[in-house]
Amino acid sequence: MYVCFWRRSSSWKFCQFFSLGFSHSTILDPHGKYNLKWRFDRRTITFEIEVETRGYIGFGLSPNGAMASSDIVIGGVTDGTPYLQDYFADANRKVHRDVQQNYRLQYGRENSTHTVLAFSRHLLTCDTSDKDITVLRVIWAYHSEDVGPSGPMYHGVNRGRKSMRLLDPGSKANISSEMDFFNLQNINVPVPFKDTTYWCQIFKIQEVQKKHHIIRIEPLIQRGHENLVHHILLYQCDSTLNESELKAGHECYHPNMPDSFLTCETIVFAWAIGGEGFTYPPHVGLSIGTSIDPVYVLMEVHYDNPAFQQGVVDSSGLRLFYTPELRQYDAGVIETGVWVSLYHMLPPGMQEYISEGHCTRECLQESLGQEMPSGVRVFAVLMHAHLAGRAIRTRHFRGQEELQPLSHDEEFDFNFQEFQLLKDERLLLPGDNLITECKYTTKDRQNMTWGGLTTRDEMCLSYLLYYPRVNLARCESLPEIIGQLKFIGVKEIQVPVTTWPFMIKSPKKYSSLSFTEAMDKYRWSKNRGKSFNQMVLQLPMNVRCSKWGQDEWSIQGTIVSPPEVKSEVKPPSTMCRSASEPHSGVVLLFTMCLTYSIVQTCLSL
């Protein structure tokens, strides 16, 4: 911002530009023309946008990446004077000037090629036309002309969207230059000429002679590809893989991908665009070098190429910092939610369908009761679904009491998934139980959606990072299949079961069909889908309670009823702050004026 000082006794004037100091940054467009910086405190978020244009700049927050129902700010610089207006778009995408102007212009400037705007807003404004700043789709646009008397002209192709976690983009740790690291890095991957590509490759973890702790993982993005690499997931694989599998990468979820990819199921790390890496708490590290530690991992890279760039070759990946100076605790990962199976099914044409995956009290009682009776502490959570997913919550129960959710995301985006540190660690005790609740939309689908590994299949999972590590890999459930088949009128299946999916024997209309074909043949409607959903949530469920590798706790495979839930605890709400409250930037300038003993101060914006 520009600050100007006067002395009352003379015409002396001194002006200087002060940078606001931004701690986070990203590039939003494929060509590097739209650059975003931001910083925040507990009350306010401040943005600086630099765009290769001399016209207007548009920036917005959207619930789904579309223009409809978005919160928008538009500004620019005309004849050396910056301007900024707060807008919103209604459900029909019509743009209106917001009566309550909550965005505050900090400064603006332009040169012969670029325009820079900085502005701020309270995190929570209590304006129904504004969006609370949580996990949001950022939308952006720009034009070569400034806003005229009739409003902004249509931006044409100069627009886009990105999902970003503005308030928790990760942390830049103070890592010593002497600390060892190793890279998991793709080498010259030819990015296909299409919108979305998932590329997978298996790597071997760095070999060490004794136990070490990984204490930080950060993205290693090829220069100029900051907007191309959208997210990176790291899965732990079977430790008995043949090392010949390490050589070649392949498109993930492809019919011809190597079978070894299917052994890599548990997510151990996730990064998404805008994130700056993950630092383990100072008392926790990810162990490598012992017989029970990961040996092989699969790295999945999501390439986002909406501009259909051709001839792009990428060598991005991850950098993992490790140390022989061991932390107090080893970190572990527990996969909770719905056991991935064809028995998890979603009818077509549903505006909303809810699945629940239970980490049962029986599983936690047996596993934690034997391994860690005092409980374990969860410090980060990643919630995972596929393309039909719209919202996920990880609910936590102790006895008859429901605690605050471990995590929740009411605007889930498949293309933006990463571990999020909890504000406060959560104690998980023997006898507790968790419910991962997923809301889906299948309104545009004509056939059943099945639980499975591909992006058109579905999952409903929560991955919990916790300490100290215990021998519990998965704590999940699956609704009983017989009850689901009875809903569509199945009376008998063919036995013995010799094929998968198994075959139906009666009634005649389903005879010799697999159960998946029978489910697809059923004439689904919205009302039938809703009744099916209500019935499935009450069905007895199969417990999955597995150790590392192929071992199981004794409770695995038993049938239990879902717990009775008396009440539902909502995430804590935040108190609204009046838009008329003094702005922190003004207070800062007033304090600076007193410090310099200047009689009169002004902002030259």
UniProtKB/TrEMBL annotation:
> Domain of life, per the record?
Eukaryota
Q: Which SUPFAM superfamilies match?
A: PHM/PNGase F
Q: Which cofactor does it need?
A: Cu(2+)
Q: Where in the cell is it found?
A: Endoplasmic reticulum membrane
Name its GO BP terms in alphabetical order.
Answer: dopamine catabolic process; norepinephrine biosynthetic process; octopamine biosynthetic process
Q: Does the keyword Repeat apply?
A: no
Q: Which InterPro entries match?
A: Cu2_ascorb_mOase-like_C, Cu2_ascorb_mOase_N, Cu2_ascorb_mOase_N_sf, Cu2_monoox_C, DBH-like, DOH_DOMON, DOMON_domain, PHM/PNGase_F_dom_sf
Q: Name one GO molecular function term.
A: copper ion binding
Keyword Signal assigned to the entry: answer is: yes
One GO cellular component assignment for this chain's record is: extracellular space
Q: Which family does the UniProt entry place this protein in? A: Belongs to the copper type II ascorbate-dependent monooxygenase family.
Q: What is this protein called?
A: DOMON domain-containing protein
